[in-house]
Amino acid sequence: MNAENLDMGDKHLANQETLSAENRREHKRFVMLEYAKIKLADEAESSSVLVDLSLGGLQLRSRHQYEAGSIVDVSIGRGDTEPIALKAEVRYSLPVKKSDLFATGLKFVTMDEASTHKWVDYVHNVFKDQGENLLAD
Description:
The protein is an alpha+beta fold. It has a single domain, classed as Thrombin, subunit H, CATH 2.40.10.220. Helices cover 23% and strands 40% of the residues. It contains three helices and six strands, in the order ααββββββα. The radius of gyration is 14 Å and the shape is globular. Mean pLDDT is 75; it is low at 1-22.
């Protein structure tokens, strides 16, 4: 899966009208592209791409559709460092127009203090990098 296949431009939320009820966010969201693994109970782990994130959750693109309300384990790659492992609830999993992908929104559920610190640091670094890129333009 690559960024071209994900239709990452302004169309990355092609289902915005459908998602509007789900789009009441408590935290600022940042657009990005990072690999993630997602695992649902007894199913095999599947690859996905993280396309946006916030302190409270994230959105993935994958070829697997998940049932709303399901609890999943998510592992997010961070370059050369240990991935962040989090538990999240599936809020929606909808087809992305003109693709074989699904947009899946996840809201984090219980996190221990160490995981919370890792996630906050990760989001902070994404925000910082995006801010620096805006200033460079």
